[in-house]
Amino acid sequence: MRNLLLSVAAVLMAGATVAAPAQSAQLPKGAAHNIVLVHGALVDQTSWKPVADILTKKGYNVTLVENPLTSLAADVDATKQALAKQSGKTVLVGHSWGGVVITQAGDDPNVSALVYVSAFAPDVGESLAILAKSGPATEGAVAIHPDEKGNLYIDPKVFPSAVAADLPPEIAESLANHQLPLNHTAFEAPVDEAAWHDKPTFYVISTKDKVIAPEVQKIFANRMKAQTTEVAGSHASLVVHAKEVAAVIEKAALEK
C-alpha cells in the first residue's frame, strides 16, 4: 500500500504546477508552523503525500500520522503522540475516518485550528456507526462489509467508482485490492470530546463524494460553523485536489 500510494502521488504531482523546485520559504508572521495530517480508513498516511509535499515546500513542518486502525483509542493515541512532538501552534487535519480521530484528539493546547477534508465530524457521544446513518445511503457506504475477523472493507468491485472515480482506473483498482481494514470496534466507538466546539474549524466538501454524501458533509460543516470550501472531487479529493486542500490548510494556519 505504501509504495502504491507513493507512486500515485508521484504520478499526480509530476505534471502539477505546485511541484516547483524547493526554495527557502518564510511563513507569514503569526502562522502556525506545524501541520499534522491524519489519514482515513482503508489507506495509509501516504494518501496525504501530495498535500504534504506542497506544504513542506512552503516551509511548514508537516507530520503524517500512521493510524493503526485497530480502535478509535489507538488512532487517537497515535495522533496525540504526533502532537506531543510539535513545538508551537499546530493545524490538525483529518480525512474521512480521520475526522473522528481529530475530533477526539484536537483538544491539545497546541492545536490552533482543525481542518476536515471529506471527513466525518462527530459530536460528543456520536460514533462513526451513528454518523454513517446520516443522510442518504451512498454507493460506498452500502458496499462496506466485515470479514470473518470483524474488519471492515469496501467491496473491491465497488471501491474504484465509489472512492476514487477521479483517479486513473488502474490506480483505483489497485487501491481497492490493497485496502487497510478498519476494525469494527473503531466504527462503533463514540467520541467523548469534540474539539471543534472550541477551535477554529475548516471543512473541505467534496461535491462528487460517493462515500460521505456531499449534503451530509455540509451538515457536518454547518453544525461546526466551519469555514467551508468546495472541490469538485471524489472521496479521494485530498490526492486529486491537493492544491486546493493545501490552500485551505494554509488558511487555517493563519487563523488567529
Explain what this protein looks like in three dimensions.
The model is unreliable at 1-24 (pLDDT under 50). The strands form 2 sheets. The protein has a 6-stranded parallel beta sheet, sandwiched between helices. The chain is 38% helix and 17% strand. The protein has helices at 2-14, 49-57, 72-84, 98-105, 128-131, 139-142, 159-163, 169-176, 184-188, 214-224, 237-240, 242-253; strands at residues 34-38, 61-65, 90-95, 111-117, 144-146, 151-154, 182-183, 201-206, 227-231. The longest helix has 13 residues, at 2-14.
What order do the SSEs take from the amino end to the carboxyl end, as H and E? HEHEHEHEHHEEHHEHEHEHH
Strand order of the largest sheet: 2-1-3-4-8-9
Radius of gyration: 17 Å
Share of helical residues: 25-40%
SS-derived structural category? alpha/beta
- On the 0 to 100 scale, the average pLDDT is 89
Report the β-strand fraction as a percent range: 15-25%
Summarize the structure.
The protein is an alpha/beta fold. The chain contains 12 helices and 9 strands.
Based on the model shown, name its key terms:
globular, 12 helices, 3-stranded antiparallel β-sheet, single chain, alpha/beta, disordered N terminus, 256 residues, 6-stranded parallel β-sheet
